[in-house]
Write a structure and sequence with these properties.
Largest sheet: 8 strands, antiparallel
Radius of gyration: 27 Å
Number of strands: 34
Shape: globular
Number of domains: 5
CATH superfamily of the largest domain: P-loop containing nucleotide triphosphate hydrolases
Strand content: 25-35%
Length: 670
């Protein structure tokens, strides 16, 4: 009989109890002898010293166990917004998510983002309402908040007694109550249940179970379970429901070897360790497998010539391990549906595919909006290459850092989403590489977008031998659109393989526009192109396309876009005037506040540039009595009257002569 696998992600806002719940599930299922605690630093999945010191998870951790004969791979993710990249990558490996919401604090900003990303990715989920033992717990309020942010219907699968006290008790409803609730709830998402409900007839227990499984798998229904991870309340009920109602790995299975790398880490003795979710096939020790890099820029709605398939990287597996936090066991094999750690793949990076490439889950949880410079604390120039190598390795683990260093420069730059990420990075550099680093004050990452529709291009026909002609039409699109690329010229006008080169080069052009920022929110159409059967060299279009793109941007002009944060502030009502004043000063827009029991809750959208010190200012003006959460909210046109220019890397294609020399390898940037 084939093994059954459940790959589950534990997701939530920070301090909601993810790691504690993971610990209780591992204890219940016998994977660990004692349930550790976050405060004492004894949990199985928080193995880094910085996690033990700070009491928060900063890296995704995996742990394998069994319950009722079913293999369960638990992927415990960080809850702090600074480490949302870990969550985003984990989604690609999941069969479903366990979303934890505090019964006291309710649905918070990052949890809302997680649920919307699960909707976008089409992933089932179950909600565990935690901390029902605490004073102020209100599960009915949490259910209402959940219903406001997702179109899914929620079905309550457990009962609770003594809510808000340490004597709280969670149980499963009796058969009759279950069938009554199931018939009424399922009638809103299932035609068969609706017919039974209208005829005043109850679904049977077996039929209710069948429909719940189907609707959960189809992402129309979300089960809800109550509990207290701290006291182990509701844990068995949750584990039983996971096995009974949630989909197993067969939901995402493939018939061919196919997998994705969702986590990279490094070990002094084992080298690079690639954590893989396998959707189909199997991998054993000493097998040679093919790795494929994902397309960096996701171009939408394309009807152009496809980019030539990238050549696979073939490497040999040396070891296969299963992890439970920092502890591991050799397995020698990973089968379809399972998760394991594979050693011996030096070229592997986060997001790489194994075997056959698979369409990635559409998540979009991370948008780094700050850039910082890293320098050595002792300013020793001899250590700069070592720092660059360390940052390259750490960027394998967290690609969103996007570490950049030009050989000969004294500084390295990285992208970041916040200060806690920098604190963790500093700790890792010291602990793992014995390097003490300092970070510059963060600067905002702007973007730019075409201001109007226009056409332009370039002819690269001198000095011979060369011949490439490229013409684009660029049209601005609404915020959040992204990029689409269109246009297929006749093959006898421009060979399809050259049109593939144009599109590949176009993707690289997006990194820097007229002001040096990433270009976004536009539609580009290839309207003209030409090759010469004698003079054209295959690389000519990689020289010509950047010149054509930049020449077209000159015609369209570009507008600077600034990043925004959505903030939510809860504070005593007496401070409302000061908080409103701060938001106005930052150039923010706010919604009508909600006032309840002397507390005000206010949501606003503010520019990143003016709000970087807002947490400190808020703590000061409210004497630490305010609660703040903030998440990325997109981009808008920047109207601050300042000129925002990002120094260009390499040679600007608008400097035609120098660019041609640079692109042909005859000119080096100092």
């Amino acid at each position: 009989m084939a093994e059954i696998f459940h790959n589950i992600g534990i997701l939530a806002h920070v301090d909601s109890g993810k790691t504690t719940l993971t610990e209780q599930l591992l204890f219940l299922t016998g994977a660990i002898r004692n349930a550790g605690t976050v405060d004492s630093g004894t949990t199985a999945t928080d193995s880094l010293s910085v996690e033990k010191q700070r009491g928060i998870s900063v890296r995704t951790a995996t742990a394998s166990t069994k319950w009722q004969g079913v293999n369960i791979n638990i992927i415990d993710t960080p809850g702090h917004i600074d480490f949302a990249g870990e969550v985003e990558r984990a989604l690609a490996a999941l069969d479903y998510a366990v979303v934890i919401v505090s019964a006291v604090e309710g649905v918070r900003a990052h949890t809302e983002n997680i649920i919307k990303s699960l909707d976008k990715a089409g992933l089932p989920r179950i909600v565990f309402i935690n901390k029902v033992d605490r004073t102020g717990a209100d599960v009915s309020k949490v259910i209402k908040e959940l219903e406001e942010i997702s179109s899914q219907k929620y079905i309550i699968l457990s009962d609770i007694e003594n809510e808000g006290t340490e004597k709280c008790f969670v149980s499963m409803p009796d058969k009759k109550t279950f069938c009554m609730n199931a018939t009424e709830t399922l009638a809103e998402v299932n035609d068969e249940a609706a017919e039974m409900f209208l005829n005043d007839t109850l679904l049977t227990k077996e039929k209710s179970d069948e429909i719940i499984c189907k609707e959960v798998s189809d992402c129309r229904l979300t089960p809800v379970v109550y509990g207290s991870a701290k006291y182990g309340v509701g844990i068995k009920e949750l584990a039983d429901i996971l096995i009974k109602y949630m989909p197993d790995s067969s939901r995402r299975a493939t018939d061919v070897l196919c997998g994705i790398i969702f986590k990279i880490e490094h070990d002094k003795s084992l080298g690079k360790i690639s954590h893989i979710r396998l959707f189909g096939g199997e991998i054993a020790n000493r097998d040679e497998i093919e790795l494929f890099a994902p397309e960096k820029n996701q171009i939408i709605k394309s009807d152009a010539v496809e980019i030539e398939a990238k050549k696979a990287i073939t490497e040999k597996v040396s070891q296969i391990k299963k992890f439970c936090g920092a502890k591991s066991t050799d397995t020698g094999i990973i089968r379809s549906g399972d998760v394991a750690a594979v050693c011996g793949l030096p070229s592997a990076k986060n997001g790489f595919y194994i075997g056959t490439p698979k369409q990635p889950e559409d998540a979009d949880l991370v948008n780094p909006f700050l850039r910082v410079k890293i320098t050595l604390a002792d300013n020793d120039p001899q250590k700069i290459p070592a720092l660059a190598a360390a940052m390259s390795e750490l960027s394998d683990e967290e690609p969103y850092m996007d570490a950049k260093w030009e050989n000969g420069q004294k500084e390295i730059t990285i992208s970041t989403t916040g200060r806690i990420q920098l604190e963790v990075l500093s700790n890792l550099l010291k602990e793992r590489y014995n390097l003490s680093a300092e970070f510059s004050p963060p600067t905002v990452i702007y973007k730019e977008t075409p201001s109007k529709r226009a056409s332009g291009g370039s002819r690269y026909t001198m000095p011979k031998p060369c011949w490439a002609v490229v013409d684009f039409d660029i049209e601005p699109m609404p915020r959040g659109y992204g990029i689409s690329y269109h246009g297929r010229l006749p093959n006898n006008q421009c060979f399809y393989r050259y049109q593939s080169h144009i599109r590949t080069s176009f993707n690289r052009c997006l990194e820097q526009g007229l002001y040096g920022w990433e270009v976004t929110d536009f539609k580009c159409t290839l309207i003209g192109g030409e090759h010469h059967t004698i003079h054209t060299h295959p690389l000519d279009f990689f020289v010509c396309t950047p010149m054509a793109f930049m020449n077209t941007l000159v015609e369209t002009g570009t507008t600077i876009l600034e990043p925004l944060l959505k903030i939510r502030v809860t504070a005593p009502e007496d401070f409302s005037g000061k908080i409103f004043s701060e938001i106005v000063k930052m150039g923010g827009d706010y919604d009508t506040p909600v006032i309840r029991s002397g507390m005000i809750t206010l949501e606003a959208v503010v520019p990143v540039a003016t709000s970087m010190n807002f947490p400190e200012r808020l703590a000061t003006l409210t004497s630490g009595r305010a609660v703040l959460s903030q998440v990325f909210h997109g981009y808008r046109e920047c109207n601050d009257g300042e000129e925002h220019i990002n120094p260009k890397n390499g040679v600007n294609p608008l400097d035609r002569s120098k660019w041609i020399l640079y692109a042909r390898g005859a000119y080096n940037v100092e």
